[in-house]
Amino acid sequence: MHRGPLLPFLVLCGGCFEAFPDTFLGFPVCPTSEPCTQLPPPPPPPVPRLAFGLQPGSATEGAMISPPIQIGLLAANGSVVSTATDSVTIRIVADPGGGTLSGTTTVAAVNGIAMFANLRIDKRGEGYVLAAAAAGYAPAFTTTFNVSCTCWTTKDPMSIARLGLGVAVVNGVLYAVGGNISGSWTNFVEAYEPVANSWATKAPIPQAPIPAAVGVVDGVLYAVGGYDAGTLQAYDPVANTWTTKAPMPTVRFDLAVGVVNGVLYAVGGRFDGAGTVEAYEPVANTWTPKAPMPTPRYGLGVAVVNSILYAVGGHSADNLPALATVEAYDPVANSWTSMAPMPTPRHGLGVAVVNGILYAVGGYNGYSSSGFPVAVGTVEAYDPDANSWTNTGPMLTSRGSFGVGVVNGVLYAVGGRSSNSPELTTLEAYDPAQDR
Questions:
Q1: Residues in Cβ contact with 243 at an 8 Å cutoff, skipping those fewer than 6 apart
Q2: How far apart are CA 264 and CA 255, in angstroms?
Q3: Per-domain residue ranges of the chain
Q4: Which of 67, 69, 111, 114 is closest to 92 using CA atoms?
Q5: CB 50 within 8 A of CB 74
Q6: Pairing of β 180-181 and β 184-185
Q7: Dihedral, 177, 179, 185, 189 alpha carbons, nearest 10
Q8: CB-CB contact of 22 with 28 (8 Å)
Q9: CB-facing half-sphere around the CA of 38: CA atoms within 13 A
């Protein structure tokens, strides 16, 4: 009698066959001497679902959310159910400001699309999320968005989107210098006239700063530092020309600049200068080393109140958390003092002063799972007399690596980048006098 080959001993465990050899009847199996691996369950079948066609943009408290939110009713294959007239309800599921959603929150779909045209949220906050629900459909959720006070307004955007740009104000005109465009550093310069709400192109900076740190002394704009040079370049807005000046002794970039009594101070930065402070005298065209910053860092912000320079936030290494550190430098005493830290640690933020109050705006706080820095819209106000901080609510667009400048008591936030997004052309204005 013919005797065929003996079948190997088979054991069914954890969803796979244990056997030797490695296949049986064409199916993969594993040796009994090795652990059996659980096969993953099959994916669930697709189901009808909702989807936001238009996400809410950043909104102003009490004003209608614009553009109007659109929600599509999708079949299991992802196509819009054009005959659907189901009712869709929308509500707040992440409520950082304790706000209330008003307007028509339940809408019947027309041709498979539900349009919410008059929704409002009455309280400012950073990171609102809305959810949409309809019977028989999987729910949908918005991306996070900010609700800001009416003191924030959108202005004419820059002509070229950039991050890492330098921003300074000369004679009531705001200048945006250099920056990064899709991984390349540019020497492009443009100027914003707040009264006309318009931009004009200016003479390009000869050597693109990486990134730009800028300050103004006696009507002249100075751009400081670079990736491989301590370059100092001076711009005369009247002549629309650039001049090269004495370079910084310490080569560094990602530093910050402040001006006290006609002297420009270059603070911190990458490379060996994270704690370095050097002062530039424009008349003599010379640099002098000063007392180093107690907390070495880069990606910080600097501003001056009553002849005292404040160094705010930053970080000491790319893989370390952002800092909340605030340190004050007195040029007369050539000494530093620790001050009350920011409530929200950040790097890549903007810092500016309006009417004696220092504002720390936006920046990055943490990293996403994909390694991108997470941009925030946080705005916190520091009172140097009280040595205390107050949260004013977020700016309209969360971002970091942008620039700030103040014209006639209004703070302007220019360019930058949101989390894992391209560079921005965005220009937004904050008027503290309207912040009530």
A1: 233, 234, 236
A2: 13
A3: 49-148, 152-434
A4: 69
A5: yes
A6: antiparallel
A7: -30
A8: yes
A9: 4
Confirm if 416 and 400 have CB atoms less than 8 A apart: yes
Closest of 103, 164, 162, 107 to residue 132, by C-alpha? 107
Please state, as a whole number, how many other Cβ atoms lie within 10 Å of the Cβ of residue 192: 24
d(CA 319, CA 311) in angstroms, rounded, equals 21
Distance CA 79, CA 390 (A): 48
Other CB atoms within a 10 A radius of the CB of residue 338 amount to 11
Q: What is the 3-state secondary structure (H, E, C) of 268-313?
A: CCCHHHCCCEEEEECCCCEEEECCCCCCCCECCEEEEECCEEEEEC
**85 and 114 in contact (C-beta within 8 Å)?**
no
pLDDT at 238: 98
Instruction: Name the nearest CA neighbour of 126 among 357, 346, 405.
Output: 346
Rg of the chain over Cα atoms, rounded to whole angstroms, equals 28
Whole-prediction pTM: 0.84
Which pLDDT tens digit goes with each residue over 195-209? 999 999 999 999 987
Structure tokens given for 91: 């509500």
Decide which of 2.60.40.10, 3.50.50.60, 1.20.210.10, 3.30.70.1230 is the CATH code for 49-148. 2.60.40.10
Coil vs helix vs strand at 433: helix
Q: Provide the pLDDT for residue 44.
A: 72
CB 143 within 8 A of CB 128: no
Q: For residue 185, give the 3-state DSSP assignment.
A: strand
Within 13 Å and on the Cβ side, how many CA atoms surround 71? Answer: 30
pLDDT tens-digit profile of 134-174?
999 999 999 999 999 999 999 999 999 999 999 999 999 99
Q: Which residue type, as a one-letter code, is found at position 411?
A: L
Residue keyed to tokens 């809408």: 107
SS3 32: coil
Q: Which CATH class is domain 152-434?
A: mainly beta
**CB atoms near residue 52 (< 10 Å):** 18
